[in-house]
Structure formats: structure tokens, C-alpha cells
Amino acid sequence: MLQRMLQNIASRRQRREFEIQSPTAAKVRTLVPKCLVCNAGPVGHRFAEVASMPCNEETKPRVTAMFYHVKNHEWESLKDFNEFRADQDDAIAYAVTGPHETGMVVLIRDPVELYARVEIYLEETITAEEVSRIKNLVSEDKWKDL
Question: What is the C-alpha to C-alpha distance for residues 110 and 91, in angstroms, rounded to an integer?
Fold first, then answer.
């Protein structure tokens, strides 16, 4: 029992250290506590930002187009959507892969306000072929562990 408690403490310490190093991974882990493909937790899964766009009146048509491309799985069209702005609300699409060939995509609105809730607009599975297409668009160094 003591050994189990010590392992639990060590695991939490490692998780906290990782979250300090990667706040984005911590946010994605909170948004996706279980994989839609395997119904497992985030351990063994990776994620990458596929597209991002600030949400404001000026970018409204582009945000709408980004939503359309994600919803219709038009991954190649998303390569032009990489305009994250830390001082504004942003729409962000993440791809998540795991110890399986298929994956999932999550489309969110990430508010600029520190205590505002992140909204999930879309969360669905993608095929192995779609995972391959996304991996061709997002370089390997952009994929991070959850």
C-alpha cells in the first residue's frame, strides 16, 4: 500500500512537471480526457495543432472557412490557417493520435481571458488515411506527447 502511494505521488509530480513544460498539452488533456478511438486516457497519445485563427470581426470569414474545412475533413486546405494571436480569442484545431492507426480531431475556441472556459465546437474520429494526410501537413517536431 505504501509503495502504491509513493508511485501515485511520483506520478503526480511528473505530471505537474510536464504541465509546467507544456501548458498546451495540459489544456488538450483536459479537453480530451478519453480518446474517442480507444476510450483510453491520454497516456500514449500525441497531439498537434493543425490550424489556428484569431476570432474577431475582421477574420470572421476565415474562421468560418476553417470550421468548414475541419468539419468536412479537408485537411490540405488548413495549411493556410496558422495565425494564432495570444491577445485574442482563437479557433484552434488539434489532431490526436494514439497507439492505433486512426485518430481524432478537436476544434475549439480558446478565449484570451484567463478564467474563461474553452469551448469545444467539434470532436470526432478520423481515419488512418486522414491521420496520414495530417502528418504530411504537420512536421514531426510539432507533435507533442499528451
Answer: 6
Query: How far is Cα 76 from Cα 51, in angstroms, rounded to an integer?
Result: 11
Q: Residue 54 belongs to what H/E stretch?
A: strand 46-54
For residue 82, the cross-strand partners are 52
**10/87 Cα distance (integer angstroms):** 36
87 CB contacts (<8 Å, ≥6 apart)?
Answer: 112
Which residue numbers in the chain have pLDDT < 70? Answer: 1-2, 5-21
Q: Report the C-alpha gap between 100 and 5 in whole angstroms.
A: 31
pTM of the model: 0.83
Q: Which of 52, 74, 77 is nearest to 142 (CA)?
A: 52
118: its cell numbers: 474553452
Q: Which residues, 6+ apart, have CB-to-CB distance to 54 below 8 Å?
A: 63, 83, 84, 85, 88, 89, 90, 91
17-27 tens-digit pLDDT: 554 467 888 88
Res 10: pLDDT: 60
With H, G, I as helix, E, B as strand and everything else as coil, classify residue 101. strand
All three cell numbers of 36, joined, read 474517442
